[in-house]
Amino acid sequence: MANIDIDGDGKPDFTLTFQNVIVIGSVIVSVFGGYLSLNSKIEKAMVMPKQEVSEKDLKYLKDEEDLKISKLEKQIEDNKHLIRSLELELRNNYKRK
């Protein structure tokens, strides 16, 4: 265990144990290893040819987007009907004084 005094007042500012050194070293090695792994993946991706998107894939994506849009349109219509019924209920039940 090492007591470390940074500001020079004679009191230790923090203590450093062997376990702390091991943990700090492990974190540094882990981050460095992750960096190297990511860097190698990026290098491989830069060398690989670009992937082409087929017409079939584009058709499925377009169909999926169309389904999402139609679902949203139906929800909008349902909300319009709900808002109209609430508005009518408010007009009939609560009169201005």
For this entry, give a set of tags:
6% strand, two-stranded antiparallel sheet, 97 residues, 2 domains, mainly alpha
Strand order of the largest sheet: 1-2
Q: Give a count of the beta strands, DSSP E runs of length 2 or more.
A: 2
Percent range for β-strand residues: 5-15%
Write down the secondary-structure element order: EEHH
**Poorly predicted residue ranges:** none
Q: Whole-Å distance between the termini? A: 80 Å
What is the overall pLDDT average? 89
Number of helices: 2
Rg over CA atoms, rounded to whole Å, is 32 Å
- Which sheet architecture does the biggest sheet show? 2 strands, antiparallel
Q: Structural class per helix/strand content? A: mainly alpha
The total tally of domains equals 2
Helix content: over 70%
* Shape designation: flat
How do you describe this structure in short?
This protein is mainly alpha-helical and 97 residues long. It contains 2 helices and 2 strands.
How would you describe what is shown here?
This protein has 97 residues and is mostly helical. It folds into 2 domains: 51 residues; 46 residues. It has 2 helices and 2 strands. The protein has a two-stranded antiparallel sheet with strand order 1-2. The chain is flat and about 80 Å long. The termini are far apart. The mean pLDDT is 89.
Task: Show the helix and strand layout.
Blueprint: E1 2-4, E2 14-16, H1 18-47, H2 55-93
Antiparallel strand pairs: 1-2
